[in-house]
Design goal:
Layout (H helix, E strand, L loop, with lengths): L1 E7 L8 E7 L8 H11 L3 E7 L8 E6 L4 E2 L3 H13 L8 E4 L5 E6 L13 E6 L4 E3 L5 H5 L5 E4 L6 E4 L3 H6 L4 H11 L4 E6 L9 E7 L4 E4 L6 H12 L5 E5 L5 E8 L2 E6 L1 E8 L3
Parallel strand pairs: 2-3, 4-6, 11-12, 13-15
Antiparallel strand pairs: 1-2, 1-18, 3-4, 4-5, 6-7, 7-8, 8-17, 9-10, 10-11, 12-13, 13-14, 15-16, 16-17
Length: 285
Amino acid sequence: MRIQIVDAFTSRPFTGNPAGVCLLPAGPWPDDAWLGQLAAELNHPETAFALPLPAGAGADWEIRWFTPLVEANLCGHATLATVHTLRREGLLTGGPVRFLSRSGGLLTAWAEDGEPGKDGEDGEITLDFPAAPVTEVAVPTGLADALGIRPGATFRTGALGDLLAVLPDETAVRALRPDLAAIAALSLREEARGVIVTAAADAVESGYDFVSRFFAPARGIPEDPVTGSAHTALAPYWAARLGRADALTGLQASGRPGLVKVALHGDRVLLTGRAVTVLEATLRV
């Protein structure tokens, strides 16, 4: 069995969000403990495991995602990395690929044609994910202290399970140095996966419309480089605020930045980006 490390939402190695991708053989799922141990061994924000499904199953692959600590409900960057890997392996049929997930339902993806095997030259990949509408709430106790700045507004993201904090400007997002232990404690108390911070782009000519960062230390991810799933909440928020549902671009301003194009279509969000394979290996256990 082979495993690949893929940098997602980028066209340059060592940027974007790294994900492990393991294409499993047909049959039953391996033991959950083994899946978790392999994800912990790789120690990337997420590792995706994809299991091929038989004809007539309603999907092409079943997909699961693991952080170094827990199984995740939804992961955008590792799904994009999986589609990228399927394309490189010649396992896409030319149409959409359908993934059956245990909590996100049916997820669909499209891969544009590219030059196979040459990372950074492959076409874009688009994911069709459920939108996470946001609901404004009072700033939770301790959030301002944990972030080191008081948000202008705070939202819950429904089934996504995050807190979304709106900061005054891009500079504040980039300068943020949160207390990660406090973020972890607050996330557990609020039953949140993590905390998204966001602001509008400082300059309209920057090539992106908004910036964000994402912290999920209680899930084993101190700061996630580029979080596709967080953009399922960022898309409806910024679409409403900017009055545009299509052609929005978010920059996740982590130490490994990446761009996510988003388009809101009713209760679905299209997430578009590129990916680069940086490592291929053979599992020996």
